[in-house]
Amino acid sequence: DAGGKAGGLRAALEVFDPEGVHEIAITTTTGSWQAMLANAKDPAVDRIYHEAEVVIDGALYAHVGIKNFGDGSQQGNPTKPNVRIKFNAFDAGKDGPEKLRNLRLKASGGDPSFLREPLFYDMLRTLTPAAPRFGFAQVTINAEPYGLYLLLEHADKRMFKRVFNNTDGRNYDSENGCVGLNCPPKGCATIAKYYAAQQTPIDGEPLDFSLLEALVTAIAQAPDAELAAQVGALADLDNVFAVYALEALTSDYDGVLAAGTNFELYEDTKTAKLHIIRGGADGTFSAFYELDHPWGEPNHWCDYRADAFYGRAWTVPELRAQLDAKMRALQCGPFQNSWMLPWLERYKKPLAVELASDPKILYPASDMGGLVGELVSYIIARRHLLEDLFGECP
Length: 394
Known about the structure:
This protein is of the alpha+beta class and 394 residues long. Helix content is 36%, strand content 18%.
C-alpha cells in the first residue's frame, strides 16, 4: 500500500515511474486558477504562466510557473485542466526534480481509461527511443483534490539529451496544426509561419527553417525513384515510419497523419536529420480507420489534410517495405498476447483503484473493465487485419 490505497499504484520511485504514483500539491491564487479553468472550457482564453508553489512528494518548489496545455483533451473534462509546470518560468536557473525544467500533468479528458495514451507510448518505445516517458500523480489544487493525472515528459533539452545525447539542435512545434510533414496550403515558402522554433537557436543564430523547408519540398516534388533518398537524407526514416505505423494501427485521429498535430520535429545536428517526437496520444484506439487512409473519411477539421509522404509510401516499393516492416514489428511484438496481456494486467486494477476516489472522473471506476474490454477488442481486430496482410507471426 505504498501508494496510499490498497491495490493502487505504489509510491513513485523516480519522476517517470510508470508503476508509481506521485503526490503533487499546487498552490496558486484563486484568480490564477479560475483563469486556467476558463481556458479549459475555451482554448481561446490567453495562456500565460501563473506563479505557483508546487510540492512533489514532500519536496517544495517555490516561485514556479503553471499554465494550461492542450485543447480537445481539456474540453473533454473542463473541470479538470491540464497543467504544465515550468520550474524556470520566473527563475532561469531553477530546476525541478531530477533537474527537469518542465513537467506535464494531463487530466486525460480524452482518455478516461488512462490506458490508451500510456499504451501508445510504450508501444512506440519498442520501435524508437523518441517517445515521452510517463508516470501518474494524485493532484491537489489549493488543497482541493483533483484526482489522478497522467504525468508526461516534456519535449525539451532534457529529453533531447536523453534520446539523442545532443541539445544543440532545434525543435519545431506544429503550431497551427493541419500541416504535418506537408507544405501548408499556400506553399512551402510559408512554412516558417506554421512552425515555431521552441529552442534558442545555436549561439544566437537567426531562426533557420531550411532543413524543414527542404523536407516538405522533397515530399511534394521528388519523383518516386528519388523520394526515399531525398527524404532519407533529411529525416530519420526509421523514426518516421515507427510513428506512421503505430498511428495507422491505432487509428490516431489527432496525430501526424490525421491532423498534423501533437508532435514536434527535432533537428539532430549530429546527423543533420529531423526526428518526430509524439505527444498527445489520447486520440488512439477509439476508431477503426483503414490503414492506407488512417485519417478517416472525411477529416472534419482539416479539409485539405492527407499526409503526402505517408500516401506516397504506399506506392513507392522501397518506402512501402520500410512501413510494412514497422507494422510487422508491431504485429509480432506489442500486439501479441505475450506483450499486451501483462501490460494490461500491470495497470488496469491499480488505475481503477486510483480512479475510484477521483472527484473529477468522467466515468465511474467500475467502468474500467468495459474500457479495457473495448481496448482488447480493438487490438484483436487489428491483429486479424495484420495477419491478413502479412500472415501469422513465427
